[in-house]
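Translate sequence into structure tokens.
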Amino acid sequence: MRIERAAVIGAGVMGSGIAAHVANAGVPVLLLDIVPPQANNRNALAEAAVERMLKAEPAPFMSKAAARLVTAGNLEDDLARLAEVDWIVEAVVENAEVKRALYAKLEALRKKGSILSSNTSTIPLAKLTEGLPKSFARDFLITHFFNPPRYMRLLEIVAGPSTRKTATEAIRRFADERLGKGVVECKDTPGFIANRIGTLWLQVAVGSAFELELSVEEADAVAGRPMGVPKTGVFGLLDLVGIDLMPHVAASMLASLPAGDMYRSLFKEIPLVGKMIAEGLTGRKGKGGFYRLQRKDGGERVKESIDLKTGAYAPSTKPQLESIGAARKGGLKALVEHPDKGGQYAWRVLSHTLAYAAALVPEIADTIPAVDQAMRLGYAWRYGPFELIDQLGTGWFAEKLKAAGMTVPPLLERAGGRPFYKTDAGKLHYLKTDGEYAELTRPAGVLLLADIKRASEPLARNASAALWDIGDGVVCLEFRSKMNAMDPDILDLVQKAIKLVKEKYKALVIYNEADNFSVGANIGLALFAANVALWPMIEEMVAKGQATYKALKYAPFPVVAAPSGMALGGGCEILLHSSAVQAHAESYMGLVEVGVGLVPGWGGCKEVLTRWLRNPKRPGGPMPAIGKAFEMIGTAQVAKSAFEAKEMLLLRESDAITMNRDRLLADAKAKALKLAKRYKAPEPAAEIRLPGRSAKVALELAVEGLRRQGKATAHDVTVSGELATVLSGGDTDITETLGEDDLTRLERRAFMTLVRSEATLERIEHMLETGKPLRN
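Result follows.
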């Protein structure tokens, strides 16, 4: 069956977030909640939830237009409308009796064959279906989303013994393809997979920090990046999700876990945490948490952290543990073997967490890849527990556990020193619970570059990029520089790719599996060259980028760019010059060069301007388009999703969006092959007419007004003036025509003028040092 309409019951943070994400998928969704006592507006709770989400950051909606697909209602007047929907998600209070009473009402009203699921994270499915008819149980399952539903990729599905397979498959397919989720099927056990392991990890990490007398900064530095955990670490994560959730999670786990579970032996109430909650120090949503930002005299905001001994705040300091340096050089094993308290802490956290995970298979899931995927997607770990054990070595880890007097899990014993994952004949295999290996297969429609790289050698490569044959006559260009910053090596390989594909292949896909597609040009190179006055070298790099991107645009074969994450500056410009884009929904695109005192120099100004000039919806005359391009580029606007990028014309109407990151390469390849069937290189762009100086003066007057209001700095005025020159057409008027090369020459001239400016070099240096723009 297809999910064409949905409903969510419960307009709290989770319920409304689920509704928003269903709307992101283009599916109409009904959002219902109770009628508030003595309310004039009976839909007040659901309507307020939608309004709140429209203002929230990070935004639950991928586009404000998606909010129009959410219809607010209430549980008294609108229950009959549930007969129209294919999937009902319940997200009400975590109370089994309340949920069952609701289900009894829904059973009498819902459409025959519709699917009903609960977002519970604490109540077993068997308990939720007690006393309800078989007709209900066959259509019921648990769909456990992680908060926030738009951004956290994990969806845990729990089916009961009576749940029909077609219902489970319909939700799995919809969640995968339309919602972009990594779906993991779990067993009906406490906490399912991610929270079962994650709550123990948090418990041992917090408790051990107190016992070993680490500061919160030291604990987060050790239990963060060295272990592949987001930079928030443990205490930063608790601040993010809310410290007041800790007692509720603990109570739920203690009420449901079996006797003898490791969590029970590790659990201890921490007085400081109780005191913090009582004082409203619940994290980012409260007055502060383990960290807080305090405004000092003069308005400066200073980051402080709490002392785990005294409960007093002091300015946050950078940890100076030798074990952290050891981890950077020698990896995870060097960290846990280091004798300082950081090494001891790392071993305490990892030994318990990894041993616990290994002991729970097959209780919570049948395979180790399911557990690893759940922790990667649910807690944003870079590596799952079994991947971490492989980094340490299964034999070494087992011996270390024995030496510490800890139980070695049967699955670890069964490994017998062999890794949990291995590559055999170019294919990834994993260890099963019977001690044999099985090939790790991907779902239909999933193509990962990691798998291709495991089984083949690149067609060409250098320090910053590589070319891969991904089959059927399609070549993939992969960026691999730091942060995928565009540099001369990447430009060289783009040129090589054009020649190679022209001679032997059908199409080119530009794609990588890093967190970000590309953060833009390597400004460190520009700063170095400027500091030694190598102006010809800088101008040559600008000209080379322009020529390379133009060659891509007019290549005799389709070029499909497939971004995910940030595609900024030069990374955005390569998208603008591609034949087509197949974008991951979570792509953040924009031309942000003004932040470092420059203007886009690789054709970005040209492409954005001409797209707005040719936009059929624009008002007459060139000024509205010039003004829109000036606003977008001059304020460094970044689309916060691929859907917003379409609204900004950074993506064309014909460009496509993929919701599931794992399906992006396959979708891009399919798009490239479809285009290749009848592809012809585009004709040179038609010439345009621009007003020249009159338009520039109008733009400069607007910026001068902002400067007088204190909203623009002196150098903002300078940078905007150069941008205005490019977008207005320079020394021209409306009677003359300009081509692409005329606009790129203006870009290059503006770029070179600004890069010689001391204020621009200060901005570049500040960005490289701090990662933040300088307002000078």
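Note: The longest strand covers residues 140-145.
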